[in-house]
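FORM 7B - TANDEM STRUCTURE REPORT

SECTION 1: FIRST PROTEIN
SEQUENCE AND TOKENS:
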Amino acid sequence: MEHRGKSWEIIVPDLTGGPLELPVAGCAVPAGFPSPAEDFAEMSLDLNRELVRNPASTFFARVRGVSMTGEGIGDGDLLVVDRAAEVRDGALAVCCIDGEFTLKRIKTDKAAGCLWLMPAHPDYEPLRVTEEDDFRVWGVVRYVIKKF
């Protein structure tokens, strides 16, 4: 199932067909200094099992826009979002505020009695959320799959 909104493409994972096992190298790829060649014994990896903790409450969403580039999340990246995950201060979440979806980091402000939805780009202002706003957290981002 797919839903396209003004700024979101939401895709629900299809877990009915059994595991989709893909080959994976048997060792980690160093990101520091090059190391001598190692045996790359092939194993299999099921991305559904690796990325989806709660199948009934997980969806994928494609990012549109640049408000989170400071966190390395760019236009076209794919999010793995879990609606069953606990929403905590500092969580990266897909939120709906007054009918508009947005991806932001949640910051609680107990002194002011509100939440802030924090962008990660200097051209965007934080969004203040109070009890008067129609606000929901649709899910917590578990993984970001980069598009290069």
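SECTION 2: SECOND PROTEIN
SEQUENCE AND TOKENS:
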Amino acid sequence: MPSTKPPAQKYDGFTAEERAAMKEHAHEQKKAAARRGSSRAEKEAAAEQDVLAKIAEMPEADRILAERIHEIVKTAAPDLTPKLWYGMPAYARDGKVVCHFQSAHKFTSRYATLGFSDQAALDDGTMWPTAYALKELTAADEQFIGALVKKAAGSDNL
């Protein structure tokens, strides 16, 4: 009797979205290398312009969220520097990403994500969240994110 089970999918490695993100990362590295010799302020200003340009390219729903996240991060943790990270807006301390925004569109997900790296000072016991799904932002959400980003940046004691 023939099997009704679908044939096993061959593993092709990275998804198209993942490959595109890696290509974006390589492009970001080339741009950063081209900025060598510029002052730190010039590099940071150019990196923020890259982030704002990437946000402007996003579909409306993601763009609205990313713009708000950008403003929240800049206000809550002004010591974090905006930069692109695998084609996503990210915010770094000493060049190391602390948090990032991933648009829903980028990986064809049903929601955008605010993620935190291991550089984020969010440790809370033996387990804590490192990413949050975002569909829209209420005033309470914005306040929570501001406090979370401030803590992640290590600025909650300032």
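SECTION 3: OBSERVATIONS ON SECOND PROTEIN
Residues 16-34 form the longest helix (19 residues).
DSSP finds four helices and five strands in the chain.

SECTION 4: SIGNATURE
Preparer initials: ____
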